[in-house]
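Q: How do we represent a protein-ligand complex in a form that can be generated token by token?
A: Start from the inputs.
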Amino acid sequence: MEELNPFKIAQEQLDSAAEIMKLDKRAHAILREPKRVVMVNFPVKMDNGDTTLFNGFRVLYNDARGPGKGGIRFHPAETVDTVKALSAWMTWKCSLANIPFGGAKGGVICDTKKMSEGELERLSRGYIQAIGRFIGPKVDVPAPDVYTTPQIMAWMMDEYNKMAGHQEPGVITGKPLEIGGSEGRFNSTAMGAMYILREAVKKRGIDLKSARIAVQGFGNAGMFAMDLVTRLFGSKVVAISDSTGGIYSEKGLDYQRLIAAKEKTGSVSGYEGGSKLTNEQLLESDVDVLIPAAIENQITGSNAGKIRAKIVLELANGPITPEADSILFEKGILDLPDFLVNSGGVIVSYFEWVQNNYGYYWPEKEVYDKLDKLVTQSFSDVFKTQDTYKAKGTKITPRDAAYIVAVDRVAKAMKSRGWY
Ligand code: NAD
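Then emit the structure tokens for the protein with nicotinamide-adenine-dinucleotide bound:
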């Protein structure tokens, strides 16, 4: 089977939005390609005395709406096309959230699991030395992503500050609290998703207090979502899974006991007092809300017809294939797209940058209140756009509508700047 090129997929998604919204051809041509791709090779001294040459990238996709924004990935299978695709998706995510950033992404081909802490620090500093001239609080602002952590962001900020000769905490976000990180950042992705869910249930007449929920994945995104949905709304999470299997309980699962089961047995399926279920069964379970929070391509043409949830909240990136998207839409299932649902992380990153630039920090509640305002507005923008098209006789999915809102904003910014 032909390997799917992620950048080709990103271009095709743009093409289909461009067609529906009749996007100006000149804007479309600019938006099909990244503005800048930086490729670097840099040496790192290893613990055994050798020097290894590492290959990295930083892609600035579009900065018409503001500096680039996007994570840095440390991954052995990183490719420039993956980074380009992810930088395009960041452009749409930041635009949909209506924060003053363009899209960017970076990566280094490396296997962090085989590196000591010292090697990782030298790699992080070496990468910043190599790309330092292409980032900055007013240029392009990185953040953590796959296999990069707040500690790595701290080393990177420190290295950038040495190069700049002054303090610039806003060069990078996702930092530890003690050097300018934001309150509320740790669970911001799941928190943003909760505000979206609160709005979405109104469209289906579901009462969250009595709602039954299934969550696929018990990592950073899934576990916080599971915890928040029960604490904030009193909903029952009846099913949850990780890569080794899942657990079901009609009474509702308990967060602390799930953590304990994961620690003791290595999997949530070790939870006592429930019945085991497979990931396939979890996806197809009879619940009000399904939250895919694990990996991509989980709902496809072959199982979309069997989904029984009334709402699908895409907390993971790309959990649903385009074919499945159409099937869910035809079935009347409300599927909320990933770059709307999981935008809480980048929104709180934006708040971190604002606080750094001001030198004035907000308490957690203020961060969450501001997050709520922004994601609730994005939700409303998406459904208003869907309604506008419906009134014109064109049925579009929430994902199409989200693309239209995002692309239109970037196109207008480019037009104002005189790029076309
Ligand atoms: P993670 O690595 O912390 O957790 C992933 C979880 O998924 C683990 O519990 C793992 O066991 C489980 N999993 C893996 N394969 C599975 C399978 N086949 N079936 C069921 N479960 C499986 O990752 P994360 O940070 O929680 O991210 C999860 C998704 O959310 C990714 O798509 C990520 O891009 C997206 N996301 C996360 C954040 C964030 O802030 N963490 C932000 C935006 C998007």
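Residues 6-175 form a domain with the Rossmann fold fold (CATH 3.40.50.10860). The chain has a mean pLDDT of 96.
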